[in-house]
Amino acid sequence: MAHGHETMMTPPIEELLGRVDSKFSLVTLAARRARNINSYFNQLGEGLGHMVPPQVSSTARKPISIAFEEIASDKIVLTDAPEEPEAPLGLPEGDFEDAE
Q: CA 29 to CA 79: how far, in whole Å?
């Protein structure tokens, strides 16, 4: 009977890399989601309710582990950020004099 490579990390990194296009994308996605999860847990007593709770039931206590589990179960996916229109520099005209 063949066994998979045993790792300390669940889900395995190989499974997570199949869900994104690069290691950098995986780290970025997991870190952003872990920060969201951490914020959710920190605001629980305040009753604000504006943060998205964890999307998987997990026995993990660390936000990064929960984020990896969400990625593995396709609850969190990487998307491109919407492009913002270029804003002008906002320098008021006529406030600067030419130095001659």
A: 9
- What is the mean pLDDT of the segment spanning 53-77? 87
Is it the case that residue 95 has pLDDT exceeding 60?
A: no
Q: What is the mean pLDDT of the chain?
A: 78
The encoded tokens of residue 20 equal: 């994104």
90 domain residue, yes or no: no
Residue 31, pLDDT above cutoff 90: yes
SS3 track for the chain: CCCCCCCCCCCCHHHHHCCCCCHHHHHHHHHHHHHHHHHHHHCHHHCCCCCCCCCCCCCCCCHHHHHHHHHHCCCCCCCCCCCCCCCCCCCCCCCCCCCC
Task: Show the domain range for 37.
Answer: 13-72
